[in-house]
Amino acid sequence: MAFDSVRGSDPRGPWCPKCQQPVRKGQPATKMHFDKDPDGELGLSGLWHGECARPYWDTVTPVLERLKKWGAGG
Fold this sequence. Notes:
alpha+beta; two-stranded antiparallel ribbon
């Protein structure tokens, strides 16, 4: 069966590492990459729902804005 315990084998799409629900086509999503988990084996890296990834972006965005002001961000 396609829904048996193999992660990612669901025909509805890849699974969000945070909420453990499928990320369906057309849903807001963010591809997250963590150096400690480059291939997603630890359940961190992969396609996340937009809302599931928001806490990370809310933390990183102010830092990126400060870097831009200092001329380090392009």
